[in-house]
Amino acid sequence: MFIVKYIQEVFGAVKSLAIGMRRTLYYFTHHKEIITEQYPDNRDTLHLPERFKGEVVMPHDEKNEHRCTGCTACELACPNGTIKVVTKFDISPEGKKKKAIDKLVYHLELCTMCNLCVVACPSDAIIMAQTFEHSVYDRNLLTKILNNPDSKIMDGVE
Amino acid sequence: MIEEIGTTPEGELIINVGPQHPSTHGVLHLVITLSGETIRKVEPHLGYIHRSIEKMCESLTYRQFIYVTSRMDYLSAHINNHACALVVEKGLQIEVPARAQVIRVLMDELTRVASHELWWGSMAMDLGAFTPFFHAFRERESINEIMEETCGARLTMNYMVPGGVVQDIHPNFQKKVKAFLQLYKLKIHEYDELVTGNIIFQNRMKGVGIIKPEDALSYGVTGPAARGSGLSCDVRKIYPYEIYDKLDFEEVLETAGDSFARYMVRIREMQQSIRIIEQLIDNIPEGDFQAKTKAVLKLPKGDYYTRVETARGELGVYIVSEGGTTPYRIKFRSPGFSNLSILDHIARGSKLGDLVAMMGTLDLVIPDIDR
Q1: Closest CA to B78 of B352, B330, B309
Q2: Which domain holds residue A119?
Q3: Domain B50-370 in CATH: superfamily?
Q4: What one-character DSSP code corresponds to residue B171?
Q5: Using CA atoms, how far apart are residues A91 and B219, in angstroms rounded to an integer?
Q6: A142 inside 8 A of chain B by CB
Q7: Helix (H), strand (E) at residue B113
């Protein structure tokens, strides 16, 4: 019976469309289930997890001291040549030469946030920060020096 | 080689789809020969997003090259990383701790669900439905949040390392995954209501782009695209890696071979992944999350091959080592490339409008094809 099958198909089609439309109407009337985040208006309340890989930073304590020994493990671990460690020799009061970092140059524009440098660091001198808005107008601003000026290595870190 | 635009001497029209076309999901360029509205030939042009990942990997050490593979098939980044970690472990004969294996499988399956979610949304959008995209992204967002908390990134995680995983799971991980499972079960019926049962959608999918099992075999089609034709090819079942042989899940098979069968395979595969996650989430064994490995990894001279099942099919990683710290040659057998190659075969003789349904259900990720 062709005509019965045809009518069944038409009613089945209308039913399937109505089922889909019911779902649409459900969300039309249930505003509480909307999960849209109003970025960038929600910057104050935006909370990123502590493991989020935003950029590499070197934490300093209140005495302007860091934990970097200048071992270049991060430089060797980096797949992109993002990190360049420039070392110098400090002369201690006893007259001994001691290797220390002069600059830890970090090229944010080359970085892929793969976390390999942080994993490789034996003295936990560098960590990942949760910042993520890195856009600037001048690309030179993306080349950063991670250690603060006149910073020193923390006592007891070898 | 045919002209890029114009007509052939037989009066057939040549048009370009892509490289910037919404339904190609990336920079894929298809040169299509049309006779009226009937497709006579589809010629994919590749290379728009070729970044020479294989060559790049040859200059990176065995720890470093893993992160690049997240950029191949970015929707199954974890699974790509997993394949690379496995091949290095095979070469060095590293025993991976049980905890790390369970975490890896959990992450793989979460990635698979997330990937299929995104595919489902974009598939429906290709066929003209806009709302499903947001529904899919709602569930995918909760997976992304889990990834962000444990791995530190949403898309290119670089969480797997030779010997295990980078860091232990976040304390909230189990709680969040359970919340996701609950959300997923609450919302999964919407998928069927909105798309699967929809008459317009079904009419556009059924009988479109039929892949015969023997064609799938000869073109090397793998993954859900081949399983829609009834071809059993799940690497997790046939060549089990990690703990997949101890898990209780089914290989999803459909027999019709058309676009709708491939659609149903992915929908059902999501439920199988959810089943695997449910089995493991309360049974993560205690112990190390990473095996002790040497600081510098050197693969012994020889060649190594492993394969895993990504969300799109079989990914093979082949490494030739000369005994140094970097691979001598590395080759990725990516699922997307083989799946694309059958497009010409199945599209011939069908209408231009059906091409979108075929491309959508092959689930092409262009960076995976070009690498």
Answers
A1: B309
A2: 55-153
A3: Cytochrome-c3 Hydrogenase, chain B (1.10.645.10)
A4: T
A5: 68
A6: no
A7: helix B98-126
Residue A137, in any domain of the structure: yes
Minimal Cα distance from B138: which residue of A? Answer: A35
Whole-angstrom distance, CA of residue B219 vs CA of residue B212: 11
Question: Is the ipTM of this structure higher than 0.90?
Answer: no
Reported as a single tens digit per residue, the pLDDT across B239-298 is: 888 888 888 888 888 888 888 899 999 988 988 999 898 888 888 888 888 888 887 888
Look up the pTM and report it: 0.88
- How many whole angstroms separate alpha carbon B83 and alpha carbon B239? 13
Q: What are phi and psi of B172, to 5 degrees?
A: -80, -5
Q: Are strands A65-66 and A152-153 parallel, antiparallel or unpaired?
A: parallel
**A40 and chain B in contact, CB less than 8 A:** no
CB contact under 8 A, A16 and B199: yes
Nearest beta carbon to residue B67 from set A19, A22, A116: A116
Burial B295-320, CB ≥16 within 10 A → b, else e: eebebeeeebebbbbbbbbbbbbbbb
Amino acid in position A134: H
- Structurally, chain A folds into a number of domains equal to 2
A115 Cβ under 8 Å from any chain B Cβ: yes
Please provide residue B309's backbone torsions phi and psi, each rounded to the nearest 5 degrees. -100, 110
